[in-house]
Amino acid sequence: MKVIEINPLALAYLGDTIYENYVRHFLIASGLMNVAQLQEKAILYVSARAQAAFLKDLLEQDFFEEDELDVMRRARNYKSKSHPKNCDIITYKHATALEAVIGYLDLLERKERIQEIMDKILKGGEVC
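and the corresponding structure tokens:
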């Protein structure tokens, strides 16, 4: 099976863990050591609302490559039986799209591209 054919929600499942790991490394490297503070700051990056805002910003910059946009569209349009708890469905789908791209790139072993995306997100600062 080709990576592009993998269920986009499975890609997002993988991408979620990778994305959160980058955020945790970033926050610890920034000097935060208190676990409560780490969790509080992490939410500013890993919440669906934050991820959707980061995605929107990167889309406005024409940052993504065509294959990444294809993965995003598939993830965003995928019919899911689960419903988000803390945000509207559109925000949730955009967050899922960003996570799916990260998962997709990971399976292709495109670590440098993941790093580029995460650098843009983490160096851009908090959105919430």
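(Above: one complete record from the training split.) The mean pLDDT is 93.
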